[in-house]
Write a structure and sequence with these properties.
three-stranded antiparallel β-sheet, seven-stranded mixed β-sheet, alpha+beta
Length: 305
Amino acid sequence: MIGSAPGTPQYSGTFVPEIWSGKLLVKFYAACAIAAIANTDYEGEIKDVGDKVIIRTVPDIQIRDYVKGQSLVIQRPEAPNKELVIDKAKYFNFICDDIDKHQTDVKLMDSWSTDAAEQMKIAIETGVLADIYADAPAANKGLTAGIKTAGFNLGASSNPLAVSKANILDVIVDVGTVLDEQNVPSTERYFLLTPWMCGNIKKSDLKDASLSGDGTSILRNGRIGQVDRFMLYHSNLLYQTTDGSDTVWHLIAGQRAALSFAAQMTKMESLRAESTFGTLVRGLNVYGYETLKPEALCDVYVKKA
């Protein structure tokens, strides 16, 4: 209530009219990166919970020595099939009362449906990231990572890797070398980082534009982009837990072929409620994911130095 000068009667407290704004307060959402880091080639082949996609793999062709006049050994190439099972589902179901629609001219159902879709993506990606880091093979995580050299520290339980602006670029390069030792292609590599780690990169030597190969310093444009063949993404959805007195994260790095993900919004409908005056809006999203090439996935167990 606006104040008044001495001696001026104040009537506004007697009746305060309510005005319903036609605008909604902006809402912030965590960024989702699952579509950028996973292979989604099989997404169009699913329809409902329980669907299974059979994925054929390429066998290893044997190379043998040859001497003149010898009989050739015939190989019958075989490779096991991989299965992508659509065995998970999430839904939303809300009601928009008729009276609410009359009290404001905002298209509430459209706004709430948009929010539901964003929350759906966040819930699914949070679950995926909390699960897949465990699929990284022993050579791609721990204190002795590297299938050929065992020479890289990527952190382990009770001994997380302490990361700061002084060593974060070394960590990224080391993870790249671990993937190199697995013969993982250099294309379509990614690294999911926490926001504080992205801040460390911006405060590291990479602030010099010439070191990143970019014509513009990342301190000016705020974009991290690509470092040592990794496209860097910040994520607030990485799995976070505690280890003793430390807060720790499981960072995920790899190549896009490592993870296959498929999701389908199989049901999206609105209908009149039976027991009240309002419209029900509900949606069902079925999805599944599978680590098809674990050798192309790294788990980096870190804490803030």
